Amino acid sequence: ITHSYGFTIEPTTHTGLLATYRINDMLTVSAGVANTFGATINERAHGPNTSVGGRTMAESYKAYMGSIAFTAPSDWGWASGSTLYAGIVNGFNTAAGDAQTSFYVGGTLATPVTGLKLGAAFDYLTMDEYPSAADSIWTLGLYASYQASEKLSFHARGEYLNGETAGDDLAVYALTGTVQYDLWENVISRLEVRWDHCADAPGGTGI
């Protein structure tokens, strides 16, 4: 399977502490502190991993994160179980040698059609000085999934990515379709096709 563009621009791994508190059946909040952005265990904003661009941060520099999640209660009828999630992470990206802030808003919506769920996600990333000026990139993804039977399901994803890197524009479209069949417990098979189109790339060319 392939990941969305939103997944690729968001941090996915931290070394730190995360606290989660369930306010009630509908609201949950989380807050955390970590060494920095980066998938390396115990990676820090100051050290040998920060040589990209020659920039490092203070040894005490940390990454901070927070989120809030809303889940529709059971008395909301067909919309029961729908979710809305928002989060933010700020820290130092050792791979890029720059401080960055990531924002995320997304949700899933149950529908009156049995087995059909819809979803949307918006990801926004801004970097301070990489490589020579502040850059930003954002993605919008729309999702649909249909559980045709206990074992068979169909999934679709449409995406748009837009950003400015090194003072130049970037625009990409993508469509993904997946057929999933659960052969038996803990064994999943997937057939997936994906189409990507670069409408505008750094240097003014598209693919």
Task: Summarize the structure in short.
This protein has 207 residues and is an all-beta fold. It has one helix at residues 5-9; strands spanning 16-22, 27-34, 63-71, 83-93, 98-110, 116-127, 135-147, 152-165, 168-184, 187-200.
Strand content: over 45%
Gross morphology is globular
Reading the helices and strands in chain order gives HEEEEEEEEEE
* Strands side by side in the biggest sheet: 1-2-3-4-5-6-7-8-9-10
State the total count of DSSP E strands.
Answer: 10
Q: Number of helical segments?
A: 1
Proportion of residues in helical segments = under 10%
Supply Rg.
20 Å
Question: Can you describe what's shown?
Answer:
- By secondary structure, this protein is mostly beta strands.
- It is 2% helix and 57% strand.
- The chain is built from one helix and ten strands.
- The protein has a ten-stranded antiparallel beta sheet.
- A hairpin with a 2-residue loop joins β8 (152-165) and β9.
- The longest helix has 5 residues, at 5-9.
- The radius of gyration is 20 Å and the shape is globular.
